[in-house]
Design goal:
The complex is a heterodimer of chains A (290) and B (339).
Chain A (H helix, E strand, L loop, with lengths): L3 E6 L1 E3 L22 E3 L1 H16 L4 E7 L5 H10 L3 E5 L9 H15 L4 E5 L10 H9 L3 E12 L2 E8 L2 E8 L2 E5 L11 H7 L5 H6 L2 H8 L7 E3 L19 E7 L8 E4 L2 H13 L5
Parallel strand pairs in A: 1-4, 1-6, 4-5, 5-11, 6-10, 7-10
Antiparallel strand pairs in A: 2-3, 7-8, 8-9
Chain B lengths: L3 E5 L1 E2 L2 E2 L1 H17 L3 E7 L5 H5 L6 E6 L8 H15 L3 E5 L2 H14 L3 E5 L1 E9 L4 E13 L4 E6 L6 E5 L17 E4 L14 E7 L11 E5 L6 H14 L2 E4 L1 H5 L20 E5 L5 H4 L7 E6 L12 E4 L2 H15 L1
Parallel strand pairs in B: 1-4, 1-6, 4-5, 5-12, 6-11, 7-11, 14-15, 14-16, 16-17, 17-18
Antiparallel strand pairs in B: 2-3, 8-9, 9-10
The chains are: A alpha/beta (290), B alpha/beta (339).
């Protein structure tokens, strides 16, 4: 069974380990100091796609992302790890999109891609943690969804069986293709970049990057179709501008506050026996413990 | 019309705690807005649901009782709720930020083309000044949530689309029984066939394994939590001993879990659970914001850390500066001598 799999991916700032170098003096976070990475759970999704491709020879994987030009970095990374094709959805009209406007643009791009059997994406991205875009894309494409997927247990005769996480447990569900799966971090980790593929694809580029590259670079591109990443604008996906970006977002950000923890009056103790003893005495006396 | 609607998530016949928390919050919001509070439950054998929700202040309960609605699958629940919302036109629709709520809510918001805010930690009412349109919209729902890995808190509004939808994290809204003697009220039994289509049942559950939570971290009055600074699994295991003598539970940071010191079900913080115990003993926890957002509401915070300037010390009531492998056995010994 030859399948066409679309993997949705996002380039995100690495918010997981915000070190001292990314903190401003006032305790706020300096976002530009954080590295831009392939959203971790989207890598779990890519791995599922690669496993499906291996088990079903002749299948292909298209990775779709939305973002600024530099998001082409994660398309190249996806090629290094084994994807076949990359599409960057980029347009000023998409800026400031909430999840609904984002899912509208992505669903429109998937319609343009045309045929597909499975859409895979991470459960959520680490910059927003909303977990909304996957189900919203599924709804707009009229697809069933399986969220929190951990493992594909079977895939045959146009049906897929998936193990997914639920509160305090797991569930095995079966659904017909086509459908959308969101994959969570407990799924298999993505395989590393392949050295041969890195050599072959490190010059893969979107047209905007190709236009700025030197002549020799351009020459090397012409010989290999696989080095052309796609770059689509709002017009390319026949999008309705009123449903995109800030204008197409029902939710508005009213206020954003940086978290700064207010220092409390605190009592300090050392690790000496006497200190620990007096602390325990105090905690017992004021009924904190005991 | 214009009421507040809360989705009651069911665990068998039991209404999930997060749903009761939302009903409590919904009651408060409904009173301030002068509207009614409605709840909706979908599942099978729902006769015990009214008795569980009315004490928390529900005015109207919508029941959809059908064996095909339990256990939960996305499409039929989404179809029923979309149609019910079109009929009832609530101004606010709240769900728990659970696996179910986070699967269901975006599907509904996309169908109804309305805004949704995920994983809120606070809900408030207030005005929104739309500078572009030159108007102020009154009494909007402020959906307040951490973002960017917990480093910022954003207030989100939905000025022009209804309902205003939000999923809310478990454990952040207190429970309030407001009508202890009321166990029944205006309950509407709906005919599900008017709400679903056969094509809604194409996803089938083949197997289901539930393991009841092995700890009661969420309701423990004393939490002993360990971070990466515990250094090893052997050191981390001392926390279980301390928790045992104090009659508390053990929690952990994501870093400690990633290091293999303990299991995922003990994770406290942005991507784990939110706790607010009477006493929180943070051992070898530096205090990354992602962790602090999950425990900062704790009553008394005690920090054990060898770094006198660990960020967590800023919110601690008691700071013990020393090595965890030295301090924790001493805490156990001195406590046992006294009690």
């Amino acid at each position: 069974m030859k399948l066409h799999i679309i993997v949705l991916a996002k380039q995100v700032p690495d918010t997981r380990n915000v070190g001292q170098q990314a903190m401003n003096a006032d305790g706020t976070i300096n976002r530009s100091a954080l590295p831009a990475i392939f959203n971790p759970e989207d890598l779990n999704a890519l791995e599922q796609a690669l496993q499906i491709k291996e088990a079903n020879p002749g299948s292909s994987i298209t990775v779709l992302t939305m973002g600024p030009y530099r998001a082409a970095d994660i398309l190249r990374e996806a090629l290094y790890r084994g994807a076949d094709e990359g599409v960057l959805l980029t347009d000023r009209a998409f800026a400031g999109a909430d999840t609904l406007a984002t899912s509208y643009a992505i669903a429109s791009a998937i319609r343009k891609i045309g045929s597909y059997d499975i859409v895979l994406c991470g459960r959520q991205a680490i910059d927003g943690d909303t977990a909304q875009v996957g189900p919203q894309v599924a709804q707009q494409l009229g697809l069933p969804q399986i969220t929190y997927s951990r493992r594909i247990a079977a895939l045959q005769d146009g049906k897929i069986t998936v193990e997914r996480s639920i509160e305090n447990g797991v569930e095995l569900v079966e659904a017909p293709l086509p459908l959308l799966l969101t994959v969570d971090g407990s799924a298999a980790a993505c395989r590393p970049c392949n050295a041969y593929r890195m050599l072959r694809f490190h010059r893969a580029a979107i047209p905007t990057e190709q236009a700025t590259a030197d002549y020799r670079y351009k020459q090397s591109l012409s010989s290999d179709e696989a080095l052309s990443l796609k770059e689509w604008s709002l017009a390319d996906i026949n999008g309705d501008a009123t449903r995109c970006g800030l204008a197409g977002s029902p939710t508005k950000v009213r206020k954003v506050e940086n978290i700064i923890f207010q220092a409390k009056e605190s009592k300090r103790f050392s690790a000496d026996d006497d200190d620990i003893k007096s602390l325990v005495d105090e905690l017992l006396a004021n009924h904190t413990i005991g | 019309m214009n009421n507040i609607l809360v989705y009651c998530e069911l665990d068998g016949a039991r209404v999930a705690e997060v749903s009761l928390e939302l009903i409590s919050k919904g009651r408060e919001l409904a009173d301030r807005l002068g509207v009614s509070l409605e709840a909706v439950a979908l599942g099978h054998n729902l006769s015990s649901v009214p008795g569980q929700v009315y004490p928390y202040g529900v005015d109207t309960l919508h029941l959809f009782d059908d064996e095909r609605l339990a256990p939960y699958t996305t499409l039929p629940h989404a179809s029923v709720l979309c149609k019910l919302i079109k009929e009832e036109e609530p101004q606010i629709f709240l769900l728990g930020a659970t696996v179910i709520g986070r699967d269901l809510a975006p599907r509904i918001s996309s169908t109804l083309h309305c805004g949704l805010t995920a994983d809120c930690t606070a809900l408030e009412l207030g005005d929104f000044e739309d500078k572009k349109a030159g108007e102020t919209i009154e009494n909007l729902l402020y959906s307040i949530r951490p973002a960017f890995g917990g480093n910022i808190v954003a207030t989100i509004v939905n000025p022009y689309h209804r309902p205003q939808m939000a999923t809310v994290r478990e454990g952040v809204m207190p429970l309030h029984v407001v009508r202890p003697d009321v166990t029944d009220g205006n309950t509407v039994h709906h005919d599900i066939n008017a709400y679903v289509d056969n094509s809604d049942f194409i996803v089938k559950i083949l197997e289901r394994h539930i393991q009841p939570a092995e700890n009661n971290l969420k309701s423990a009055p004393i939490v002993v939590a360990g971070g990466y600074g515990m250094g090893s699994k052997e050191n981390f295991d001392m926390l279980f001993e301390l928790a045992r003598v104090l009659h508390g539970e053990v929690g952990a940071t994501r870093a400690a879990i990633d290091a293999g010191f303990t299991t995922h079900d003990r994770q406290i913080g942005q991507t784990g659970m939110t706790v607010r115990p009477k006493v929180y003993i943070a051992c070898g926890i530096s205090g990354q914001v992602q962790h602090i957002t999950g425990m900062q509401e704790s009553g008394i915070i005690i920090s054990v850390n060898n770094d006198p300037d660990a960020p967590i010390n800023a919110i601690a009531d008691y700071i013990i500066t020393g090595n965890v492998e030295e301090v924790i056995p001493k805490l156990i010994t001195h406590y046992q001598q006294k009690s």
